[in-house]
Amino acid sequence: MRMKSFAIVAALALSTAIAGCSTIGSQIFTNNYGPMTDAGYQLPRIPIEKVPFKYRRQVVSYDTDEKPGTIVVDTQNKFLYYVMGGGEAMRYGIGVGREGFEWRGTARIAVKREWPTWTPPSAMIKRQPELAKFAGGMDPGLTNPLGARALYLFNKGGDSGYRLHGSPEWNSIGKAMSSGCIRLMNQDIIDLYDRTSVGAKVIVL
């Protein structure tokens, strides 16, 4: 009888974990990457089954002295943490700067934009002359490198030139491919955008 009761409890625990997409200490949002309409744009489904499990949006245990609302970017492990308090954070997989474009420091979110215009900096145009046609800005859209949202990072010197932004290139998450900006999957940057406030602290490790 005791074994039967244990089996029932175990089965219930397993079914609950599967239904809630959760694991011990975390909640996984695997089902949140489907197609969606946003500001008139039709974002396609992300083939999340092709994205490593660890890079999918999830609530994790996170011990920090930083106050809720702070963003901590772990460039080495390709994670971005949004501190929620209570020893937890929302964790997102990210793409980071390739070799020679890494950076670290503390900044704040000064501007938030939905479906932003992308303007390549002059140094990038010099490296890639084919981008000169976008010197006046690339219109928002599904192929825009900033994706569905952008959070503009400023420091004591003003605009750092770096952004936390979406990207149509979901397969770049977990890799070092950018020119220094931190990129997220579009569905993830929309989620992060809705959580963050102008003035929020951003720490890049």
Automatic annotation (TrEMBL):
Keywords: Cell shape, Cell wall biogenesis/degradation, Glycosyltransferase, Hydrolase, Peptidoglycan synthesis, Signal, Transferase. GO terms for molecular function: glycosyltransferase activity; peptidoglycan L,D-transpeptidase activity. Gene3D superfamilies: L,D-transpeptidase catalytic domain-like. The keyword Metal-binding does not apply. Residues 1-19 form the signal peptide. The keyword Signal applies. It holds the Pfam family YkuD. GO terms for cellular component: extracellular region. Belongs to the YkuD family. This is L,D-TPase catalytic domain-containing protein.
